[in-house]
Each structure stands twice: as structure tokens, then as C-alpha cells.
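hiii so um. not sure if this is the right channel but i have a protein structure encoded as C-alpha cells and i wanna go backwards to a sequence. like what aa goes where. can anyone help
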């Protein structure tokens, strides 16, 4: 019969304390589905290899342990459904004295690791992962450009999907730009755009009221372009990238248009609110460092000609692409998390605006939204971001065990108050287990080990769930004072 989770904890605590005097403790891990005869042949081969160990004492201890393991393997006709873990070695703390002990463990969950090793300690990490990973947490780290989705299973982080949006960088690419020598009229006089400082006020047009105003420059950055345009009117000249937006002064309105699409003769608007027709457009195929700015009014005058706040349009495009990316992240979360039976909660990390925008605009399923137990401010959105997210969420993760205990005990006490399909005295719990009526067996971890082992095995034999609760909460302490054992029943006995 497979070892219960509780028994596995007890065995692991015992095995962790053992230290060999030399590398003479044997660990054999056989994964589910492995051929038991192949493993037996390997152990036999290792016995021959062990004959080469120089120390006579170590050689005897290792070969005797391997022989004991080999005899045990011959008892099995096939690998057990969840595999097998065998630990054997000399545990005597006296030099030259042999005290050979053997542990056979049928894991409660499928063992994934195959291993043979001689060491001064037993290798128990693959078994520890089983009780650590009874429940899992969904992990998401994201911003507008990248997302990584993963699972926390015990202490192990598993990456499920990496996603990128294809949104261009905010300051490095994609902006529409002007020559660094472009003249801008500020409230402190005329200066080149390259010398403009964020926060300065520059001349712009209140389009709604057709009024010249000063607006604040709220951002500025540089871009490198492989080519640019020179646009000449009767009185002015503008050097800009082909994707920079200008305003065509139609008779009754202003029309936004990329510089690269504008034709000779098109009328632009100057800082006297008069129309100036373009008399020449030249394309210069030469790399150039250009400047872009963002203003509150979303336009400004450059070399006396009205141009669009190019960053505003670029930001609108980015925001639209970001919302679409957020929806893709939400869809991916639904695919991975929605039907995951052991999912206990979801942790989300990212820059301050991005994760809030995602929760607001990502159209995340309400069931999954309710599973979110923490959101954390993070800069990394790759695998290392998942690790940072888990580290920052330790308090929330530890609280989940207490919340789980409280919910289990709340259900137990509610049924107890109604005397509805519940048992709590030892004789009543034993009777319910005997008749297969127990759906969930609840045990306080302060009960005697022998009682826990006895009841756990009985519950496992009828496929009942076993839940352990501490005395760290008032509910847990009350439950222990009531006897420390109880059962939620499938039917009355």
C-alpha cells in the first residue's frame, strides 16, 4: 500500500537525521513506469563495481547494502504505480561496527526521478517535493512587452509559457522625430529642440479654440533614423522623419498626416495661424540623430510650423497593442490555470502601472481573478522575475495554509452544530472508516504519531482525503481540545 503523506513526512524526518561515516548510504529511486528488472540488473552491476572500493570496511558496508536492496527488488514482479524509493546503509555511529538498515517507500504520488547513489546522506529531495507540492500556485510576471507564466509546485518553479507583445520600446524606437537644430519658441525665448528641458513651456495651438497658447513639454528622447525628410515652404524649413505627423491646413479643419505621405503644394499652418504651402520635399538617405518630445496639448510649433505631438499618437498605438497583449495573457492563464485541480492561488508581479492595467483591461476570467492572493511590484518579467515574485510573496503563501485549515474546520464545526454527516469521537471515526463513509478525515498534527498513522492508513484504504490541521489558530486549538480527530462523511453511519 502506498505510504500516506503524513507517514512520508515522518520517514523523511527520520532519514534526514542519518549521516554515514563514509559514502556508504545507498539511495535507489525507481520512477513510475520503469522496468523493475532493469533496475535490479543495475544494482547487481553496482555490486561488482563496489568491489573496487579501497577501504575494506566501506566496501563491505556498500556491498552488503546493495545485496539487501537486490533481495528486496526480487520480491516485485513489476514497478508499482507510483514507483519505489529504497534507502539502505550502515547507520552505526561507531567506526568498524555495522548496523545495516533498510527503508522501502511506496510514494503517495508518482515518482519522477530515477537515481542510484552512494553518499554520506540519503537523497530525499524528490520525495520532499511530493508533500510540498500537494497544491500549486499560478505565477505571472508581466509588463506591456513581455510576460512569463509559471507554476509554483512546492519549492519548484516551472515555466509554462513565455510571451512577447512585439510592442516597440517606449524611448528607443518607433517615435516620429525632428532635427536637433529645430527651433522651438519657449516662454523663455527661442531655443533648439535639443536644448529643450522637460517642464518648459513651448508654443502650441489650442485647436478647439483656434488660439495660440504655451503648453508644457512633459517628455523628450532621442531616436536614430536611417533617413529623413527636408520640407521647405516659402518662409520655413523643417527636417523630420518620414513618420512624423504634420497638420495639413484644410479649409475648415486640420488633418493629421505622416510627413512621408505629404505632397508638394500641401498647406501647413504657421505660428501666425496662416497657411504656407510646401514648395519642395527632399528625402535624405543618411543616418541621423533626431529628437522627439511629448507635450500636454499634443502639438507644438517647430521652426514656426505646427506639428503633431508625435509621441501622443505613438503612445496611443502602444496602449492599444498593450491591451491586446493583456487579453492574450488572460487567455493563456485561462488555458493553464482554469481547470487545474490543485490550484490554490495566483500571484501576479510587474511594474506598478502594467499589472494594474492588466487587471483592469485584460478581461481576466472572474474565477481566476478571485484566485489572486497577491500582486507585487517587480521589474523583471522573465524566469528570474518568477523567482523574485515567490520570494516577495512568502507572507501571503504562509497565510494560505492557515486559511485552508480555517475553512476545513469551519465546515467541520458547521456540520457538528447540525449533527449532519460528521464524526469526531475515536469510536465514531473508526466506525465511519470501517464502513467506508468518510469523505475527509481531519487530524490534528498534535495527535500521537501512532494514532495518526493508524487512521491515515484506514482513510487511504477507502480513498478518503486526509487533512492535517495545526493548533496555531483558535479553530485548530478548539479542534484538538475536542479530541483532535474528526471526519466529514459521505453518508450517515
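sure thing!! here u go:
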Amino acid at each position: 500500500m502506498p505510504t500516506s503523506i503524513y507517514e512520508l513526512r515522518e520517514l523523511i524526518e527520520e532519514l534526514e537525521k542519518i549521516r554515514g561515516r563514509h559514502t556508504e548510504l545507498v539511495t535507489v529511486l525507481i520512477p513510475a513506469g520503469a522496468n523493475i528488472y532493469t533496475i535490479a540488473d543495475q544494482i547487481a552491476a553496482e555490486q561488482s563495481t563496489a568491489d573496487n572500493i579501497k577501504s575494506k570496511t566501506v566496501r563491505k558496508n556498500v556491498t552488503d547494502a546493495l545485496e539487501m536492496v537486490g533481495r528486496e527488488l526480487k520480491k516485485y514482479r513489476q514497478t508499482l504505480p507510483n514507483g519505489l524509493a529504497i534507502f539502505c546503509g550502515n547507520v552505526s555511529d561507531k567506526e568498524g561496527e555495522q548496523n545495516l538498515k533498510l527503508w522501502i517507500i511506496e510514494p503517495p504520488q508518482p515518482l519522477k526521478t530515477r537515481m542510484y547513489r552512494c553518499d554520506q546522506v540519503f537523497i530525499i529531495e524528490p520525495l520532499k517535493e511530493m508533500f510540498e507540492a500537494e497544491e500549486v500556485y499560478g505565477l505571472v510576471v508581466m509588463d506591456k512587452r513581455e510576460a512569463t507564466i509559471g507554476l509554483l509546485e512546492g519549492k519548484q518553479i516551472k515555466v509554462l509559457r513565455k510571451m512577447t507583445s512585439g510592442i516597440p520600446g517606449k524611448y528607443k524606437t518607433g517615435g516620429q522625430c525632428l532635427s536637433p537644430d529645430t527651433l522651438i519658441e519657449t516662454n523663455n525665448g527661442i531655443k533648439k529642440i535639443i536644448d529643450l528641458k522637460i517642464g518648459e513651456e513651448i508654443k502650441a495651438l489650442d485647436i478647439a479654440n483656434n488660439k495660440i497658447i504655451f503648453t508644457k513639454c512633459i517628455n523628450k528622447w532621442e531616436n536614430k533614423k536611417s533617413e529623413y525628410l527636408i520640407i521647405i515652404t516659402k518662409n520655413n524649413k523643417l527636417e523630420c522623419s518620414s513618420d512624423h505627423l504634420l497638420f495639413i491646413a484644410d479649409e475648415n479643419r486640420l488633418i493629421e498626416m505622416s510627413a512621408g505621405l505629404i505632397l508638394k503644394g500641401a498647406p501647413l499652418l504657421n505660428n501666425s495661424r496662416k497657411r504656407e504651402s510646401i514648395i519642395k520635399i527632399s528625402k535624405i538617405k543618411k543616418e541621423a540623430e533626431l529628437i522627439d518630445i511629448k507635450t500636454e496639448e499634443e502639438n507644438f510649433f517647430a521652426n514656426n510650423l505646427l506639428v503633431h505631438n508625435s509621441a501622443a499618437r505613438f503612445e496611443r498605438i502602444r496602449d492599444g497593442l498593450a491591451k491586446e497583449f493583456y487579453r492574450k495573457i488572460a487567455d493563456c492563464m485561462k488555458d493553464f490555470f482554469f481547470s487545474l485541480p490543485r490550484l490554490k492561488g495566483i500571484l501576479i508581479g510587474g511594474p506598478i502601472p502594467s499589472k494594474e492595467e492588466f487587471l483592469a483591461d485584460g478581461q481576466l476570467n472572474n474565477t481566476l481573478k478571485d484566485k489572486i492572493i497577491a500582486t507585487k511590484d517587480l521589474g523583471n518579467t522573465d524566469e528570474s522575475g518568477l523567482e523574485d515574485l515567490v520570494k516577495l510573496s512568502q507572507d501571503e503563501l504562509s497565510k494560505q495554509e492557515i486559511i485552508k485549515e480555517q475553512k476545513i474546520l469551519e465546515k467541520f464545526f458547521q456540520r457538528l452544530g447540525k449533527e449532519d454527516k460528521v464524526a469526531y469521537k475515536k469510536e465514531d471515526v473508526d466506525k465511519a472508516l470501517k464502513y467506508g463513509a468518510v469523505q475527509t478525515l481531519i487530524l490534528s498534527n498534535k495527535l500521537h504519531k501512532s494514532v495518526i498513522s493508524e487512521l491515515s492508513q484506514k482513510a487511504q484504504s477507502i480513498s478518503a482525503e486526509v487533512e492535517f490541521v495545526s493548533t496555531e489558530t483558535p479553530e485548530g486549538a478548539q479542534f484538538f481540545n475536542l479530541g483532535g480527530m474528526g471526519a466529514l462523511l459521505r453518508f450517515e453511519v
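oh and DSSP finds twelve helices and 26 strands in the chain.
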